[in-house]
Structure formats: C-alpha cells, structure tokens
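Minimal example, chain plus flavin-adenine dinucleotide.
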Amino acid sequence: MKNSVVIIGAGHAGGMTAISLRRKKYQGPIKLIGEENFLPYQRPALSKRFLSGEIEEKRLYLKSKDYFNKNNINIINNTKVTAIDRNNKTIHLNNQEKIGYKKLVIATGSIVNQIKTSGRETNLYYLRTIGDSLKLREILSNKNKIVIIGAGYIGLEIASVAIKKNLKVIVLEQENRVMERVVSSEVSDFFQKKHQSEGVVFKFNSSINDIEDHGKQKRIICNDGSVLNTGSVIIGIGIKPNIKLAQNSGLACDNGITVNEIGQTSDRHIFAVGDCSNHPNNIFKSRLRLESVQNAVEQAQSVAETIASKQTPYHAIPWFWSDQYNIKLQIAGISKDHDHRVIRGHPEEERFAVFYQKEKRLIAIDTINSPREFAIGKKLIEMQSEIPFELISNTNFDLKKLVS
Ligand code: FAD
C-alpha cells in the first residue's frame, strides 16, 4: 500500500510512533515491522524488576494486542527489513515480500558492543531483549558466582539484582570508576561504596585481553595478566546505533542516522527516531544521540505530529534514571561540558544531588533519592537562568523559589 506510514523496528520508539500517530488523529494505514516476536515493549525493567522476577512480561508491553487491533495498527512481528529502496519508496523483508510506503520511520534502536574472544560464545551473556533477560534470570538462579564486564548502569543494575539473590559478584571495569561516561566522580564514589557495602567486588583499570573457553569454565585474561575463572560472564560494555539499513540505502549517518529538528533524514520521506537517530538540540546547541526512554518517547511523539498534522520540532531536556538497590539515580541535561559543580545534600544519608553549571547556568543534574530536586532542577535547566552556587548548596534554601 503506497499510502502507508511504515515503521521499521517495533521497539519503544517505533511503538510510540504508531501510538502517537493515532493519538494525533492520523487516519491512514500504519505498518509496524519488528524483528522480535513481541509487541512493542519497554526495556528498562529487563535489568531491574523483570530480571529479579518481580514483574511479569505483560507489564513490559506499551499496549495490549487488543489496543493495536482496535486502532488498526498492523504489527508484523518476527520479520526483518533487509533493504530500503528509496527510488521506489519500498522496503524489502526477509520473507521476500515488499511493502510500499508514503512515509517511512526508521526505529531500529541499538546493537550491543561485543567482546571478541578466542573461545566459543557459550556462557557469554549480553542484555538487550526479553529473551536475554530471561536467560540471565536462569543464570542468576543457577549459579553462585558471576563476573560482569562493564560498570555502566546496566552492569551495575544486574549486579544489584544478583547480590540480592546471594550470588558472589565481581565487576571488571576498564576505567577507574563506575558509570564514568555519565556521572561525576562524587556520584561514582557513592555508587561504588554502596555496591561494595552490599558485597560487590570491583576490579578497575581492567580491560580484557581474552576470554578462553575451558569446558563449562571461562578464563578471563585481563590486561595486567591476572586471570579470573568463572562459569558465566555477563557483558555490558555499551551499545552502538543500528544504522546498517540506513547506511546501505545512502542516508546520511554520523554517529547515528542524521536527522533535522523534525526528525527527517537526508530523504524527506524518511524519518528516524530513538537510539538510532542523531538530532540537533537547540537547548544544548549541539547534536545528540541519546539512549533513553525519554528520547524514544518524545522524539516519536514529535515525528508523529509532523507526519499527522504540522511540523513539530523536537528540542527536549534529556533525562534518564537507574535503579540500584534502594537507590534511584535520576539524571537530566548533559553534564559533559560543565565548568563547576555543586553538591546539595549529604551522600552519607543516601540523598543528595549534584548540580552542574557552565558559565553560571545550570546544564545538568544528577539526583540520588531526590525526586523533588530532580523536578526543580530539570525546570531550572530549561530556564537557562544564572543561579548563584551558594543558593544551591544551602539546603535551608527552597530551590522552588527559583522557578516560581
Ligand atoms: P529499541 O527499543 O531497541 O527497539 C528497536 C527495535 O528495532 C528492536 O526490537 C529491534 O529488534 C528492531 N529492529 C532492528 N532492526 C530491524 C530490522 N532491520 N527489521 C525489523 N526490526 C528491526 N532507558 C532509560 O531511560 N532508563 C532506563 O533505566 C533504561 N534501562 C535500560 C535497561 C536495559 C536492559 C536496556 C537494554 C535499555 C535501557 N534503557 C533505559 C534504554 C531504552 O530502553 C532505549 O533507549 C529504548 O529502548 C530505545 O528505543 P528504540 O525504539 O530506539 O530501540
């Protein structure tokens, strides 16, 4: 059908694009094509409450099968899009079918970074899908020791679930602190201590030379020559945007599929949303490629509105969260270029926030068990006004006064 909106990738951003198109009263046909055999679902719980077994699979779905049927959204699961023929405005599927489109939305997400090893891939685990999380559940209930490679938020969330199941947990990290890519040293120190107090053992400055295969055992050979023996290795060393389809069809890509402020690629009939897209952000005056639910949802909403009714630019404050033990970390903004940072609250009380400034303006916050500071901080970032450091660190001063 040549008049369809076709969405490649039935994940969070793809699913939200379809849902938002109907909310914005788009009347035409919508086809949502996904390689996985699930309805569009949310991934965050895969390393948190779904992994621990506290919530069931149906809680992950964005909407029920019934919703998609009623709203006439045609989901084609278990099917991979193999090529985009831009000249004929047609996509090719792995079952040899072809589907025409009026507008195409690419929402192909990310691919996990893998470690090349001389051994077989057995007993090496990555986490991206429901299937991966179910496999990890099994590991956590059958084993008494795991080694996790990577102290990013995924590795740490898995560690916190594993410790609660009484496993011995060793985390290897090539940097000298946890979550080095996303938080300041104060927040890293806090999380490191928290994990250590729960029993996690860290080995920092430790990259992997090889993982050898010895039957049911793996031998992890580190750069300093040390060797760790373990039955299962869980790897969380980041992701890369899944852009092969876009590249093969000649769309402009640079750390993601390059889109303009309305989510349009270098082909005006094709949009890209979610982890795979790289968009301009006028609040941070730079291009961003984000790996978060906030981005998947809000970019999808803006592209859906552009397709359904009027051009809707997407310029949002990025935000993110992570749950580890009883700690909720919430991050807003981009702290990378800060020239000053102020701590409000007390890490020893497991409740504090780090405010990052650039030329006196607040550009980011990391909050620990402090939802109020998170909400206010996010507004302050949006306002881009200058804020004196002393007011932030003074816990007797109500920050709300700065936003009202
Ligand atoms: P995805 O949700 O990955 O969807 C992409 C889909 O496209 C996949 O289903 C894939 O199979 C499909 N696909 C790819 N290529 C093709 C093709 N050629 N044909 C058909 N289908 C294709 N974010 C937060 O903000 N907070 C969190 O706490 C958090 N925790 C996370 C925990 C885990 C374990 C993971 C994996 C992610 C987490 N995230 C979190 C990130 C968040 O889930 C992602 O940013 C979000 O899923 C991105 O949505 P997306 O649609 O771009 O990609």
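The chain has three domains: 3-42+61-111+240-308, 114-235, 326-402. The radius of gyration is 22 Å.
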